[in-house]
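Hi,

Apologies if this is the wrong queue. I'm a grad student, and the batch job for Peptidyl-prolyl cis-trans isomerase from Gulo gulo produced an output file that my downstream script rejects. I'm not sure whether the problem is my script or the file. Here is the sequence I used:
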Amino acid sequence: MFFNIAVNGKPLGHTSFELFAVKLSKTVENFHALSTGEKGFGNKVSSFHRIILGFMCQGDDFTGYHGTGGKSIYVEKFDHENFILKHTGPGILSVASTGPSTNGAQIFICTAKTERLDDKHVVFGKVKRA
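Support response: The file is valid. Your script probably expects a header line. Output copied below for reference.
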């Protein structure tokens, strides 16, 4: 799985991800289906609406486009699958949520170790190459 990255329409390259489907099959299935649009909706073209230096880049809000939307393929939102994996450093791919049963389309990529997010946000992949 990969994202093509551009700034103001200028291509910068692509970022590929390793997804942890064995440990987080439901979360990975949601991300993959929304990224490809295979369910008839999703975010084949998306943006990072929130970038905090030294913390993370958040995006994939394909319904609100600014951090207030983004449904899942299961229901509007779904519950955390598990918290086995941790936010161990830059490149960790995680689900953005506001609490239990609020996982949807939004994801974030950590740019630093963010232990304070452990047991609150589901880690389901990591950047392989940027």
